[in-house]
Each structure stands twice: as structure tokens, then as C-alpha cells.
Amino acid sequence: MSTVPQSDRLRNGKNLRKLFDMFRGSAAGLDSANFASFAVDCMLVDKAFSQTDATMIFSKVKLGKKTELSFDRFEEAVRQIAVAKNLTFNECIQNCADVKGLSSFACEGNAIVVDVETLTVRQLKAKMEAKGVSYAGCLEKTDLIARYRRTIGAAAHITGLDAMRIYAKKMIEAPEKNEYELEYPKKKSLGISLERANEWGIVKVAPVEVELGSVLVAVNGERVLLKPYNEAMQTLKLNIERGMKMLLVHK
To answer: Which domain holds residue 231?
Structure first.
């Protein structure tokens, strides 16, 4: 029996559909070239899983002489990629969604996948040490990246506060971000329950006008997205007494 929460399964199902639509473009399904782009762009291709492996899966799951994958066949292809990469189906979707910026926030303890070029020198060295890879002789960041790619792969898993900052930057910069504002009179009950995820306040229970999974961004014009969670909640409490406007974002 699956231990993946139903909310995560629903979110991953929606993200899988978004990935399918993103890479098929105006076509009815994914042809071999678009499927290869999906595998590369979502950083599924690495030392252990080659582009040839992706092509073989495409050929295996497509129906008969068809040259494109329907959504159902695409789902099966992703399942087989997950098995090949020793991931669960949901982990595979989550990683792809993270790379393409489809996820709305980073949950504590979960990793997001980024290109190694986004890592700092400190992060590169720490991850190489953890993998038992020496960085002796690497004088520049480009040297570290080249050795990382050669010995570990093109992608890196980021967790905790580093993951939160990456997500925050994506949400702030994303042109398609969905920001909305709610206004509450003095001392009115908000009817909203926020749950902590890393240092963010994530909406878990809310009235119909609030989208579940939204992230608290600002209170009365004061940005709290990158503040520690306790400090953001204190700002929220102080403003309840005098009425406030909450800015939230949902992707």
C-alpha cells in the first residue's frame, strides 16, 4: 500500500500532465525527439541513465507503429524511467517538476534537483566530499563543476534552507506566478491554518477564496517570504489586531 499522501499524489498527477503538455507543444503526443528533450531538460539523463536508455523506453512503451506517446503511454514511460533510476514514480515526477519550476514549495526533508552550475563552491565541495570524490587540483569553480559532472552527474539534490531559497527566487522571478491579496478587518478570524514547511507558512486549511498550498509572501506590505518562520508568524499575529492585507502566491 502506498505511503504517499493523497495530496502529493494529486499534485504529482497534475504536474505530470503539465510536463506532458509542456513537451508535446501543439502536437497530440510526444514524439521521440520531444521525449528525449523531456529526459534531458528534466535532468533525468546522467551517468547511470543515458539518452539511449530514454530512447529504448520510448520505443518499448509506444503502441505499435505509432510515432507519438499519448498521455497514458507517457505516464508508463515515466514509471519505467523511475525504475531504471531507482526512484519511486512520485519521486521521479517531483524531481522533474522541481527542475521545471512547477512545484510551489520545498517540503522539509525533501530534495529538489538543480543543475550543478547553480551550486556555490562551498556546496560543490561539500557534496563531492559526501560522495568521496576529491576536488584536489580544482582551482576554479569551473574545474569543480567539470569534475562533479564527470564523476557524479549533471544534477544535484538540494535540501533545507538552500532548497527554500531556490524556490523563493523562482517564485519571485517567475512571470507566471499567481499572486493574490486578501484583506481582513480588525480582529476578524482568518479561518486559515498555516503549516510550517522549512521556514515558510503554507496554507493547509482555508476558506474557498484561498488556494491550498499557497505561500505567505507579505503582510501589510512587509515581505515575510525569506524571514524565519517564527518571525513571519509573529508579524502575522501583530497585524491581526489592527486588520491587514495578506499577499499569497500559488503556482
So the answer is: 175-250
